[in-house]
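Re: the request from the purification team.
They wanted to know what the chain is likely to look like in 3D before they choose a buffer screen. I agreed to run a prediction and write the result into the notebook, where they can find it.
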Amino acid sequence: MIKKLVLSFPVDATDRSLTYDLVKLYDIRINILKAEIEAGKSGKLLVELEADETQLEKGIAYLEGNGVSVSPLSSKISYDEARCIQCGNCASACFSHALTIGAPDWLLKFNPEKCIVCKLCLKSCPLKLFRIEFAEGI
């Protein structure tokens, strides 16, 4: 099972090796997609965690027990496909490869499963076709 989560670390948890503990204690594979964290300050990690469901639950409980707030990725990117001019600016800015363009049809393709909501596509689109949608109830 794979889950995309936002981990919010309080000031007193940023200098501990909690993500290492997830690997060592719970056999959870961690893919850090985005990080905004510094020692001595609160911070956030956008991560993909992969393990069987039981181990994921135990790992998340471990994080929460250590003061880390865990929440599902609460927003996603969408765009106005009908107005897209297929310029490729967004695809060249997308380092997660959620947006691609190429032969043979040279049409923009969007894979939301790869999207990490870094927002670079919002800045790179000359027509401002991208927007952030927030999930309800989160």
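For the purification team: The mean pLDDT is 88.
Please add any questions underneath this entry.
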